[in-house]
Design brief:
Four copies of one chain form a homotetramer. Chain A is mainly alpha-helical. Helices cover about 70% and strands about 0% of the residues of chain A. Chain A binds a DNA duplex through helix 3.
Chain lengths: ~200, ~200, ~200, ~200
DNA sequence: GATGAATGAGGGTTCATTCAT
DNA sequence: GATGAATGAACCCTCATTCAT
C-alpha cells in the first residue's frame, strides 16, 4: 500500500546491527570532522574536498556533515582556523625557547630550513588557504590573526618593524625553498636573517 | 501532439549559443580557451573551474574543450604556463628599464608596492597555481621556470645570491601586503630592500 | 582545541527553538499539530509537507511528531478530518439560518459566491484532500462523511434528490469560479440554483 | 596519480555494452518523459513524483531529466498541459458526434456517467492538477484553456450561459460520483441535465 | 575536423525515523 | 513520558566525457 508522501522511506529495519561502532553522542565529532577536512584538503586540494570524502575520512556518516555544518564553506573556514591555531602555536613555542637574540635568529633560521614548521603539508595547506581566503572574507580574518600571532612571537626578540620584515622573509623563503631545485643553504639563510636584523 | 504549454525548447543547460556565427577554422581557439580559463580561475577558483564555464567564457562550444584538450588538468597546466609567461615578461621589462643600482632598487620597490605586478588578480592566481602545482608535477616545472626568469631579471642588476634573496623577499612582502590591514609603507619597503642589497 | 572561527554552535537545521519555555504536559498538542499541518499543506501542498515544517509551525519539538503520530499519513488523515469537520459545520450553520425555501436558495448562492466557504484556502485544501484521498482509503471515508453532512444540511430545506444535485452544483460552480477569469455573476448563480430547485 | 579537479571522474569505460537499446538521438524523448510523468503522478501523486521514478518509467537515464527540463515543476507543468489537451480533445469529439439537442444531452450524460472521460485516472489527475495549479501560475492558464475548450464544445449545442453551467455541473457530478457510495443513476443525471438545459 | 545531444557517476542537501537520555 | 542528536536513504542537480552526425 503506497504512501502518498512517497519521497522518503524509512531506513530498512536495521539488518547489519550497528556497523562499526555505534557513535551516538560523540562530543568530539565536530573537531574530528575538521581534522579530517584538513587531511582531505592536503590530499585532494580544496577542489577535491567533498562532503563524502571528509565524512569517510572522519568515519562519520554523510548526514553528519550537513547536520553539523551549513556547508562545505563552513567546514573549510573552521578547518583552516584550526590549522592557523596549531601552526601559530608551534611557531610561537619555537621562538619562546630562544634565550637571547642570537638564539632567536637561529630559531628563525630553523623555522625556514627545518621541516618542523614549513613542512610540505603545511606549505600546501597554506597555499590552499590563501587561494580560498580571497573568496571567503571570514578567512581573511583568520589569515590576519595568524600573521599577527607570528609577528607577536617575533616581537619577543626583535623590534616591531624587524618582526614584520622577518615574518615576510620567512614566508618568501619558505615558499621558494619548496620550489627551488637547489634550495638555499642554512648558512645563506642565516646570513639573510642577520642582514635584516642588524 | 504538442502541449499548450511548452512546445520544444532547447535544453535548459545551454546558454552559450553563438548560433549563426559558426566559427570553424579558428586558429586562436586554443589560446582563447586558455585566457578564458584564467578568467574563470580568477573568478571561481580552480575548484569552480569547469569545462562548461570555460567554454562559455571563451565563447566556444562545449565540445571544443575536450576536442582541443585531454582534460581540465591540461587546460589548467597550459593556462598557468601562459600566466607565468605574461607575468615574468612584465617583471623583466620593469627591471630592464632601470639604468643603475639605485633605479633597480626603486624598480624592486615598485614591483612590491605598485599594483602593477602584485595585483589582487595576480596574487590570487599565484595562490591557485601554488596549490595546484603541488599535485601536478608539470606545473612544478612552470613554477621553477618562472622563478628562474625572475632571478635572471634581478641578476641584471644584483649579484646572484642577492637576486635570490630579493626574489623571495618580493614574494613574502607581496603576500603579506595583500593580507595586512596596515600594509608597510613605501619607505619601509625601500629600507628593507636596501638592507638586503648592501 | 577550539578554533578561532567557530567555537561550538548548535546544528544548522534547528531554528524552532522554544528553549526555555518547556511545554511538557500539553494536552492540546495533538490538535495544535493538526492545525499546523493544515497551514503547511495550504502553503506548501501535501508534497511539501514535512515533519520538520509542521513541527516548526506548531512550535513543538521535532521528536513530538513521531511520538504522537505514526507517520505523516496519519497526521494528514487526521488533519483533513479536522478540516472536513470545520467546513461542514460552517456549511450547516449557514443553511440552518435560512427560514424558508427562498432564504435557503439565497444561502446556497452565498455559499458559492461569498468567500465565506469557498475561500481560496479551502478550495486549495479540498483539492489536496481529493488527490490525497484517492491513495488513502481512510480519507475516502472522511470525504463521504463530509458529503453526507452537506447533503443533510441541504435536506433541511430541499428534497433528497435535489439536495444531492445542489451539493454537486455547489462543488462544480465553486471550482469553476476559482478558475474562471470572468466568474459567473450572483444573478446567474441564483438562476441556476432555481432551475435545479423547481 | 590523482587529478586536482577531483570531483568528477570519467564514467567507467563502457563495460556492459549499451544497456538495453542505445537511444541517442531520440526526438520523441521529451514527449515520452511527459507521458511517463503522468503515469507516475497517477500512481504516486505529485508528492511522490520524482525525477528518478519518471526516468525509470520513461526508460531514460536520470540525467535526461534535467537535461530536457529545468526541474520537476517544468515537467509537471508540461505534463498537465498534455493531459488537458488530450482530455479536452476527447471531450470535444464526443460532443461533436451529437447531431441534435437531444443527442447532445445524451452526450453530456455519457461524459458524466460513462467511464470514458471521468475515469478514475482522469479524476485523480484533475485533482492533482487543481492542487498543483494553485501554486503554479502557468498551470492556471492551462486550466483556463481547458475550461474554455470544454465550454466551446458545449456551445456547439447550447447557449453560452447554459454551456458554462453544464460544464460546472459535469465537474461537480463527476467528482461526487467518484466519492459517492451510491452514485446517481443515469436517469437522475439525465433529469438534472434537462433541468439545466430548458 | 568539429559539434552538441546524451549519459550516469558523483555532487550537496533534506528528510523521516531511531534511540540514548 | 518526551526529546533532539544522529543517521543514511533518497532526493535534485551538475559535471566531464562520449559518440553519432
Amino acid at each position: 500500500m503506497p504512501t502518498a508522501v512517497g519521497r522518503f522511506r524509512p531506513p530498512a529495519v536495521r539488518e547489519i546491527a550497528l556497523r562499526g561502532t555505534r557513535r551516538r553522542y560523540d562530543p568530539e565529532r565536530r573537531t574530528r570532522i575538521l581534522r579530517a577536512a584538513l587531511d582531505v584538503v592536503a590530499e585532494h586540494g580544496v577542489a577535491g574536498t567533498t562532503h563524502r570524502r571528509v565524512a569517510a575520512t572522519a568515519d562519520v556518516p554523510l548526514g553528519s556533515m550537513t547536520y553539523h555544518f551549513t556547508g562545505m564553506d563552513e567546514v573549510l573556514t573552521e578547518a583552516f582556523g584550526l590549522l592557523a591555531d596549531r601552526v601559530a602555536t608551534r611557531f610561537t613555542e619555537r621562538l619562546a625557547a630562544a634565550a637571547n637574540p642570537d638564539e632567536a635568529c637561529e630559531a628563525v633560521v630553523d623555522l625556514i630550513v627545518d621541516e618542523s614548521w614549513a613542512t610540505p603539508r603545511n606549505m600546501l595547506l597554506s597555499y590552499e588557504l590563501y587561494a580560498f581566503a580571497v573568496r571567503n572574507p571570514p578567512l581573511r580574518r583568520v589569515m590576519q590573526d595568524w600573521m599577527e600571532k607570528s609577528r607577536a612571537a617575533l616581537r619577543q626578540h626583535f623590534a616591531p618593524d624587524t618582526a614584520k620584515v622577518l615574518d615576510a622573509m620567512i614566508e618568501g623563503l619558505s615558499i621558494h625553498r619548496s620550489v627551488d631545485v637547489e634550495p638555499m643553504s642554512r648558512a645563506e639563510v642565516r646570513s639573510v636573517v642577520e642582514r635584516l636584523v642588524h
